[in-house]
Design a protein that fits this description.
About 35% of the residues lie in helices and about 35% in strands. The chain is α+β, with helices and mostly antiparallel strands. It starts with a strand and ends with a helix.
């Protein structure tokens, strides 16, 4: 078995060990040592990383796993052999962040439990900077604020964090926040007189090292639980720095003090709503004017009236509203040409009473012009190069006239 130095000396970064065994695991070389500071992924907390070195050379520890025989280290680089002595160093910055996440969870879970014993911790995760605690009892937003304040208050008291081992028989002598999931010899972790819980992971040496602890959000999840997401220590500070920079930049951009940003944004939102309403009225008025103009200039081909309208890129809404109006005017083919950068987007719409197929007409147009598109009998769309604008209407008139002539011939 591997001696767990990460529990007995969690603040150390250097250690020496002997290689007991080498093997292949998931296609990677792996080492079993007689003792280690490397914590394996367990209890929702990620593993440590670092390196091992000796006369054999040097290898990076990329993964650490708990197995029945001890602690397995997956490595990359030079590989020692059984019996070799290795010197190891863990990545302390990574360990510190993991310990801050974990210690903060203990303090936060205890805070919720003290606010209401119904707020019991069911599960936790420390796999990323945004950690989670899943709680029973449906804590409110006010409970979140109270728990955060309590937790940071305990951090600032700089309580010592200690650990000790007890047996099953001795457990009854201790008031634990939750029952342990293991039996036999059980390691308890205490944060002063605030928190006491069974735990097999390395922690900080004092509560102050976990500060600040910031609840970021909460959400209802399956099983009637509430998931509380939080950050702690260096990661909470980094998050604050990032958001502070963003907010400060916004304050400069909006010519406002930071504390006045909500009111400034609310004012801008009101202005935008007013501008949108004004714009909508203008679009409606412009649509009405353009529509009347288009009807007056419509071309008559047999029994069909062809209405052709050009729209600038910023008039897309006018085009859509015009098409909507056309539905109320039977006997028309409507050709809407939207001028975009470098191309034309063309819509051909038929209104009630017109037998011509818009889709068929567009296919015939595209057989003569270089473009892409298609559609149904009632409406079709296609795209063309800008140079094709002058060719569309004459060609379309020819196709409509041919259809009208053939229809007249058939009826006679």
């Amino acid at each position: 078995m591997t001696k767990k130095l990460y529990l007995s000396t969690p603040q150390e970064t250097l250690f020496e060990a002997r290689v007991l065994e080498t093997r292949q695991t998931d296609g990677h070389p792996a080492l079993l040592l007689d003792q280690t500071l490397f914590y394996p992924t367990s209890g929702g907390q990620p593993h440590d990383t670092g390196f091992l070195e000796g006369h054999f050379g040097r290898c990076q520890v990329t993964d650490v796993r708990k197995i029945p025989e001890g602690i397995l280290h997956l490595v990359e680089g030079d590989i020692p052999v059984p019996g070799d002595t290795v010197k190891g160093r863990i990545d302390w910055d990574r360990r510190l962040r993991h310990a801050q996440r974990h210690t903060a969870q203990h303090l936060l879970s205890q805070a919720f439990f003290r606010i209401n014993p119904a707020f019991k911790t069911v599960s936790v995760s420390f796999m990323g900077p945004l950690c989670t605690v899943d709680l029973e009892g449906n804590p409110s937003s006010m409970d979140m604020k109270k728990a955060q304040a309590l937790t940071n208050g305990i951090c600032y008291k700089n309580l010592p964090i200690t650990d000790f081992v007890v047996s099953d028989r001795e457990l009854a002598d201790y008031s634990l926040r939750r029952a342990p999931k293991v039996s036999g010899s059980i390691r308890l972790v205490a944060a002063g007189d605030w928190e006491l819980a069974a735990c097999g992971a390395p922690h900080l040496s004092s509560t102050a090292q976990a500060a600040p602890v910031k609840i970021q959000k909460s959400e209802n999840i399956h099983g009637g639980l509430v998931r509380v997401s939080y950050q702690a220590g260096l990661e909470a500070l980094a998050d604050y720095d990032e958001k502070h920079d963003i907010v400060s930049s916004l304050a400069v951009e909006f010519s406002s003090r930071v504390e006045q940003l909500p009111l400034r944004v609310q004012g801008l939102r009101s202005e935008l709503t007013g501008e949108r309403e004004t714009n909508l009225k203008l679009v409606q008025e412009l649509t009405g004017y353009r529509f009347r103009e288009g009807v007056g200039e419509a071309l008559t081909v047999g029994s069909v009236r062809l209405m052709v309208m050009d729209f600038a890129e910023h008039e897309e809404d006018v085009l859509k509203k015009t098409m909507k109006r056309m539905e109320q005017h039977p006997g028309y083919l409507f050709l809407g040409i939207l001028h975009l950068t470098g191309k034309l987007e063309v819509t051909l719409l038929r209104t009630p009473g017109v037998e011509l197929s818009a889709g068929r007409l567009v296919r015939q147009l595209l057989a003569e012009l270089e473009g892409r598109g298609g559609g149904r009998d009632d409406m079709a769309r296609f795209a063309l190069g800008v140079d094709s604008r002058e060719s569309i209407v004459p060609l379309l008139l020819t196709l409509i006239d041919a259809y009208s002539s053939s229809s007249s011939g058939s009826s006679s």
